[in-house]
Amino acid sequence: MLGRRGSCLLRWALIGLSVAVLAGCGGGAGGRDQGRAGEGREITVASGDNWFDPRELEVRRGETVTLVVSNDGALVHNISIDEFGVKRDYRPGETVRVTFTADRAGEFEFYCDEPGHREAGMVGVLRVR
Ligand SMILES: [Cu+2]
C-alpha cells in the first residue's frame, strides 16, 4: 500500500520535472532574445479610423523591419504591403507586430484592406532606399 503510493508520487514528480524542463527550453530567455534580434529594426505606426501615423516610412534595402502597429480607433483595421507579403488584421486597442525583409528598393504602398478604408485615407508609402 505504502509502496504503491510511493511509486505513484515518484511518477508524478518525474512528470513534473519533465514539464519543467520542457517549459524551460521553450520559454528560455536566450530563445526570446534571438527572436527579438531576428525582427530587425522596429518602426512604430499608430492608426485609427481611418488613418496611419506616420504615413511615410523609410528603410534601407535588405533591412529586416518590424512594424509595431497600434489601433486607437473603434474599428478593425489591417496593414498590408502586397510586395512584401504583409497582411494583418488587428482589433481596436490591439497592437500587432509584423516583420518582413525589405529585399527590393522602390516605393511601395502600405494600406488597410478593410473595405473603403484605403480610399478614406488609410494608405501610406514605404520607401526602400
Ligand atoms: Cu482600416
Could you explain how this protein is built, in words?
By secondary structure, the protein is α/β, with parallel strands linked by helices. The chain folds into two domains: 2-33; 40-128, Sandwich (Immunoglobulin-like). Helices cover 29% and strands 40% of the residues. The protein has three helices and nine strands, in the order ααββββββββαβ. The protein has helices at 2-26, 29-37, 117-120, and strands at residues 41-48, 51-53, 56-59, 64-71, 77-81, 86-90, 95-101, 106-111, 123-128. The strands form three sheets. It has a four-stranded mixed β-sheet, with no helix packed on it. The chain has a three-stranded mixed β-sheet with strand order 3-9-8. The longest helix has 25 residues, at 2-26. The chain is globular and about 35 Å long. It starts with a helix and ends with a strand. Mean pLDDT is 83; it is low at 19-35. It binds copper (II) ion. Residues 50, 77-78, 112, 114, 117, 122 line the site of copper (II) ion (CU).
Beta fraction:
35-45%
How confident is the prediction overall: mean pLDDT?
83
Helix percentage:
25-40%
Q: Please, what is the CATH homologous superfamily of the largest domain?
A: Cupredoxins -  blue copper proteins
CATH top level class name of the largest domain: Mainly Beta
Low-confidence stretches: 19-35
Q: Give the overall shape, derived from the CA principal axes.
A: globular
What hetero molecules are bound to the protein chains? copper (II) ion
